[in-house]
Design brief:
By secondary structure, this protein is an alpha+beta fold. It folds into three domains: 25-320, DD-peptidase/beta-lactamase superfamily (Beta-lactamase); 331-473, Transcription Regulator spoIIAA; 486-621, Jelly Rolls (Sandwich). Helix content is 42%, strand content 16%. The strands form five sheets. The protein has a five-stranded antiparallel beta sheet with strand order 2-1-7-6-5, sandwiched between helices. A five-stranded mixed beta sheet has the order 8-9-10-11-12, sandwiched between helices. Strands 13-20-15-18 form a four-stranded antiparallel beta sheet. A hairpin with a 4-residue loop joins strand 5 (275-277) and strand 6. Helix 6 crosses helix 10 (219-230), helix 11 crosses helix 12 and helix 15 (376-388) packs parallel to helix 16 (408-423). It is elongated and about 110 Å long. Residues 1-13 have low confidence and may be disordered. The structure holds glutamine. Glutamine is lined by residues 84-85, 117-118, 134, 178, 185, 213, 278-279, 304. Keywords: Acetylation, Hydrolase.
């Protein structure tokens, strides 16, 4: 929604539904860059491919795509141009995927050549220096050709389209122009053939290469492609996993060392963002876990890099301190909260003797809430906390609901920690993870003894389960109580037998089946209930559980104070309860003010206890 608005702030029919009328500062920065650098007319159009001379030297587009898929676009970001050498990075990734790392390594090196992109020199063992120069890129096309033959180019086109998130086409005129004039690349290819780097069909391989260079993209496409690399191989706009994180790291490595031809060293030193340029005027730059940038301006410097594109990259890196080697991430922010259940309980309301056990042994349940993506450093930090800091609770809950991902190294370290804890008799519960999630799959695969590891989708359910264990261990476990006497109701505490009998007389016995809704939020509140047997849950209309209640507890008692129901109450099991209509209760109160006072005092005490519990939770939430 935001992206659309930014692109067409004045277009009719687009109204901003929410939010301030301000523009994100990054957009303002990109607009400023555009305004400043468009005035720079230095550099020249590539002319060794005749068709490229027809480019409009004034064209200048910038696009930036964030990891969450937001697209910023400025200037001629939708103007198509040929991808040229920018394709090399993505075709290298494809070659790795298709023939594997070993085969690629045997064919192409990864050392910077220090020479121009079209250098004809090979390494001492007669391989191309790296896949970012023409020799290496042609060798990549050769590898793909060996697998796919005639289908090789279509395979390349499809892969690049996935990176861009749309179907890409070819500029036939540029392709024809380079085919007609590309004798230097032909010389390189035949040299590679001489050293058996390429198969027999040299012209067919060259055609794959020429065609891939003539694929049409926009600055926006390049930004999405770069953002896919920055996002561990997942296209942040389409959500498609295009390539593995392992291959992403290899690809970004060669982009860093050789992506800007014989300017690569200077580039990494000054800008520090893995990038690749092409003679069509495009540059992609991918900063892992931050952004993908695509620029287009066909005026090139002496290294054949786009003049204005370089300037945008330099300005962005300098202004926001984006050099990839200047990262910071403090592992200590990964633990959001670390507490035992003192004053914090699950939403299951307990019988008094059960609550007493929980109060006495609150430090036996430790809850650690994690936040952010977990990796080697953060899990190491968590494991040291567990090893060194009490309480050594026999029940440990680690909450993952704010953890989107865990790296293989993180999962391994955590698995080892959990296995060791299991051997020490600790039961660990991971909450906030679905059975099908990557986090659960990773951690479970690395934990040797799964018997001491549990999983819950909700933290509240995990705490309830741990509480049950504790109550059971300390002998307080009473399976769902058969029934409760009306005298146990907290609302009726201190009433004598006659008063109690009078209340019962005003009430009607009700039965509900499991799953049946007893109270619905929003309905008029005109009665209250005394639960005699079974369990009910109080839930917000959103489905969030506020409390689970058992025999001897009341619900709907807020009706005494409020006109309409604020939550649903649903029977979890078959339920019997007494329903006391408010109007008869009101008559009774008028006739028996003394009893009424006791009930109102009890109600105040119930609400006060609830407030104390809520305050403890608010305190926990706001303390971090
Ligand atoms: N640097 C480039 O963009 C070169 C690509 C171009 N197709 C060539 O091989 O000459």
């Amino acid at each position: 929604m935001d992206a659309q608005l930014i692109r067409s702030p004045t277009s009719a029919g687009v109204t901003r539904p929410t939010g301030y009328e301000t523009k994100p500062p990054l957009r303002r920065f990109l607009v400023d860059c555009y305004e400043e650098f468009r005035a720079d007319h230095s550099g020249a159009l590539a002319d060794y491919i005749p068709e490229l001379k027809r480019a409009n030297p004034d064209h200048f587009g910038v696009a930036l795509v964030t990891i969450d898929g937001h697209v910023y676009e400025v200037g001629d970001s939708a103007v198509p141009f040929t991808i040229q050498s920018v394709s090399k990075a993505f075709v290298f990734a494809l070659a790795l995927e298709m023939v594997g790392e070993e085969r690629v390594a045997a064919t192409i090196g990864v050392e910077p050549s220090g020479e121009a992109f079209n250098s004809i020199r090979l390494t001492n063992d007669n391989r191309p220096f790296n896949p970012m120069v023409n020799a290496g890129a042609i060798a990549c096309s050769g590898l793909i050709f060996e697998v796919d033959g005639k289908g090789a180019f279509e395979r390349v086109r499809r892969k690049l389209s996935q990176f861009a998130g749309r179907e890409l086409g070819v500029d036939e005129a540029v392709h024809a122009s380079e085919t007609a004039t590309g004798n230097r690349n032909r010389a390189i290819a035949w040299l590679l053939r001489n050293y058996a780097v390429l198969p027999d069909d040299v012209d067919a391989v060259l055609d794959v290469y020429f065609r891939q260079c003539a694929i049409l993209v926009t600055a926006r496409d390049l930004a999405v492609m770069a953002a896919t690399l920055a996002n561990r191989g997942i296209n942040p706009v389409t959500g498609v996993q295009v390539i593995t994180p392992h291959i992403v790291a290899r690809t970004l490595s060669v982009m860093t060392s050789s992506g800007m031809y014989d300017y690569a060293g200077e580039w990494t030193y000054r800008v520090g963002i893995p990038a690749k340029s092409g003679v069509g005027g495009g540059i992609v730059a991918a900063l892992p876990s931050q952004l993908g940038l695509g620029t287009f301006s066909p005026l090139l410097d002496a290294h054949f890099n786009s003049v204005r594109g370089l300037k945008v990259c330099e300005a962005l890196s300098a202004r926001f301190d984006l050099h990839m080697l200047n990262r910071n991430a403090d592992v200590r922010t990964s633990i959001m909260a670390d507490y035992d259940i003192y004053g914090i309980s699950s939403r299951r309301s307990r019988q008094p003797h059960e609550q007493q056990i929980l109060d006495e042994h609150h430090s036996d349940i430790r809850v650690i809430e994690l936040v952010g993506a977990m990796n080697f450093g953060t899990i190491d930090y968590v494991s040291r906390k567990l090893a060194n800091e009490p309480p050594n609770a026999p029940l440990l809950i680690i909450d993952f609901r704010r953890v989107p991902d865990i790296t293989a190294a993180g999962a391994e370290l955590l698995g080892e920690t959990l296995s060791a804890l299991g051997n020490a008799g600790v039961t660990t519960i991971l909450s906030g993870v679905e059975a099908a999630s990557v986090v659960w799959a990773g951690v479970a695969a690395c934990t040797t003894d799964l018997r001491r590891l549990r999983r819950f989708t909700l933290l509240d359910d995990a705490i309830e389960w741990a509480e049950d264990q504790l109550i059971y261990r300390f002998g307080g476990f009473t399976d769902v109580r058969e029934s409760a006497h009306i005298g146990e109701q907290a609302l009726l505490a201190d009433l004598d037998a006659d008063e109690m009998a009078a209340i019962v007389k005003l009430s009607t016995m009700r039965r509900y089946g499991a799953g049946q809704r007893i109270i619905a939020a929003g309905e008029p509140a005109n009665s209250l209930f005394f639960l005699q047997s079974g369990m009910v849950s109080v839930k917000l209309p959103s489905g969030v559980r506020l409390a689970s209640l058992g025999p001897g507890m009341e619900f709907g008692e807020m009706a005494i104070l409020e006109r309409s129901r604020s939550a649903d109450v649903v029977a979890d099991t078959p339920v019997t309860c007494l329903e006391l209509p408010l109007d008869s209760f009101a008559d009774y109160r008028r006739l028996h003010p003394g009893t009424a006072l006791k009930i109102m005092r009890n109600l105040a005490a119930i609400l006060a206890r609830r407030l104390v519990a809520a305050n403890a939770k608010v305190d926990l939430l706001s303390a971090y």
